[in-house]
Amino acid sequence: MALKLFDSLTRELRDLKPAHPDGVYRFYNCGPTVYAPAHIGNFRTFVVNDVIRRLLELEFPGKVKHVRNLTDVDDKTIKRSREADQSLGDYTRIWTDKFHADCAALNCLPPNVEPSATNHIAEQVDMIEVLMQKGNAYRAADGSVYFKVSSFPEYGALSRVKERELQKGATLKAAAFDDDEKEDGSDFALWKAWKPEDGPNKWAGPKGASEGRPGWHIECSAMSKKHLGETIDLHTGGVDLLFPHHENEIAQSQCCNGTTFSRHWYHSEHLLVDGKKMSKSLGNLYTLDDLAAKGFSPAALRYALISGHPRKQLNFTLDSLHAAEKALATLRAFSASLPAGGGNPDVFAPVFAALQDDLNTPAALGALFTVVNRGSAGVDHAAFTRVLFALGLKLDAPAAPKPEAPAEVIALAEKRWAAKKAKDFASADKLRAEIAAAGWSMLDRKDGYTLEKAKG
Ligand code: AMP
Ligand code: ZN
Question: How far is CA 347 from the centre of its chain?
Fold first, then answer.
């Protein structure tokens, strides 16, 4: 059976097959904006994409090229780096390292190429120049460059934005995201002229434009072209990227290259926490460190994140992590009971059938537990390991639970970490003393810290 995924563009289930004669499957997944730790919602998307990557590896061994970018220049990265009084590069490096550490903890395979926007300015400028020459883009009065949406009649095919807006009785203008100097409300920025709040962050622009920086959407068109070519096999991201980001990527790439940009589009749904959209102000935004501080393992988070259908919203609760830890313990015990070989190689066929049918991870876990609950007869390690690989589940012995620091100590540690990052070492030292007085010690790592109960 072939791997099938829902295609957001044609709105049907379609087989995944490489188009290029070299047989390499070209897969682009929009990556994180590196200005803060990624939250568990972001990681739902990255874990789902990791399961896709793993299934592709099984389907096309050694012939998968997975590219996932880093957005390391935009309003947020610039603003936060300036607030922290760090260069943009130093600041985004911290959050890139943290993202890598979290991905490794979640057992996500690293992409084959991880290009960043600031390392591909020339490629973006080149594409913008082509779009200007072809009449798909224009320079605005302030030296920015905009994409002219009316020059691309197919605009909106992915998100059906025109139908959506017409249904609401509004015009496409309502979909505008950038303002400033553009000719039409729906046009979007390819290049943003420098503004004082950008500080030292500016690059030479396309011919005729001002110094500045690329708009967000163009980076994926340029990096995908550079590393995967003009036509790719699969492009993915969370549902919020469907419009305008992916719609704009299609417009840029297809107008520039004159050919299909991606043959297949896949969007996974969002994670909710306690039934609500995650937000700092609601206090329901979790990072991996927040969950580690509560004693949960990253493996349990990964399990919880794949326990819902990727194309349906998933409601996360701390209870789901307790259930995940229990499920992992059952799998661990099952694994220990298996012989190395001699079992039926097809015993887990229903698990793979569920995964190949539009990535039905909850059905796959159900099928896995049907086998586990029957007992180990006829099952061997080799077959079980293949299932664990596909789902990305690692059954290492769980870390011994550490005593959890009280909220006051965690609050002090957060303050000290912020002070340290802001290079306010006097405050950081004072806070360390307060933490010690409360009976805890704070151990600094490159990308975060741990709190340990002081001995004695
Ligand atoms: P960002 O760093 O904001 O560009 O987001 C990185 C990825 O996380 C994108 O693919 C988003 O679609 C995805 N994402 C953002 N919020 C959520 C959420 N609550 N649940 C699932 N995915 C999300
Ligand atoms: Zn993108």
Answer: 33
